[in-house]
Design a protein that fits this description.
The protein has 230 residues and is mostly helical. It has two domains: 62 residues; 154 residues, Lysozyme. Helices cover 68% and strands 0% of the residues. The chain has nine helices and no strands. Helix 4 packs across helix 9, helix 5 crosses helix 6 and helix 6 crosses helix 9. It is globular, with a radius of gyration of 20 Å.
Length: 230
């Protein structure tokens, strides 16, 4: 008698989404391949450049959708994913911050990242670099809170019922900061350049800011992986 394996509903939904995303990516790849051959035969090199850009955009879209599919909708508002729990434990030990104080920050990062199609660990990494998880941090340039948002530049992102002091509220600051980060990434065409603009270092050829954030994100990933393997 053959054994039957049942996947948990959440895993089944994620598997279905990932399969659909793979189909979408393969369709775009096939189209780009065919059009590329036509461009080579006709000598239209500009067409090839345009197709390369289209392919890069398609890859970015698939990656964003995979990140969004990682946490089922009904779980994202009530619990942290395993990789986020591992990251929370790492942050609590490294920055010496209570897990109770970090919990709402991580939950907000997870929910907001899902809405914006960002990796929540990227948001957490930015917080670590920008403020070291001090919600009352303020720079000499007026940047405030966990993600060091400058109020005078982003008043349009503040909820109507909130006051300017809300930029120091951890949850509000993460929500606004994540939107600023998303805009920077979209405007600059990629995570590294987006991070450079977010950190006010767009003209730094060494990309020191993005390197620092991505290194922190890698440490968070490793912490989450360790939790999964235990």
């Amino acid at each position: 008698m053959f054994a039957t394996t049942f996947l948990p509903p959440a895993m089944l939904r994620v598997s279905t989404v990932v399969y659909a995303l793979l189909q979408k990516f393969l369709m775009v790849a096939g189209f780009v391949f065919v059009m590329g051959l036509i461009g080579l035969q006709s000598g239209h090199l500009g067409l090839l450049d345009g197709l390369k850009s289209l392919m890069s955009s398609a890859e970015a879209s698939v990656i964003e959708d995979e990140v969004a599919a990682e946490v089922p909708a009904e779980e994202s508002a009530t619990s942290l994913s395993p990789r986020m729990r591992g990251a929370l434990d790492y942050v609590s030990r490294r920055y010496r911050v209570s897990t109770d104080a970090l919990q709402p920050i991580f939950e907000t990062a997870q929910i907001t990242a899902r809405q914006l199609h960002l990796d929540p660990l990227l948001i957490i990494a930015v917080i670590g670099v920008e403020s070291g998880f001090n919600p009352f941090s303020q720079s000499v340039f007026g940047a405030q809170g966990l993600m060091q948002v400058v109020p005078r530049f982003h008043m349009d992102k503040l909820p109507e019922e909130a006051e300017q002091a809300s930029f120091l509220d951890p949850v509000t600051n993460v929500q606004i900061g994540a939107r600023v980060l998303k805009e920077s990434i979209r405007r600059n065409g990629g995570v590294e350049d987006g991070l450079q603009q977010f950190g006010g270092a767009i003209n730094d050829p060494g990309r020191r800011y993005s390197t620092k954030v991505l290194a922190e994100k890698q440490r968070l990933e490793q912490a989450g992986q360790r939790l999964r393997n235990t």
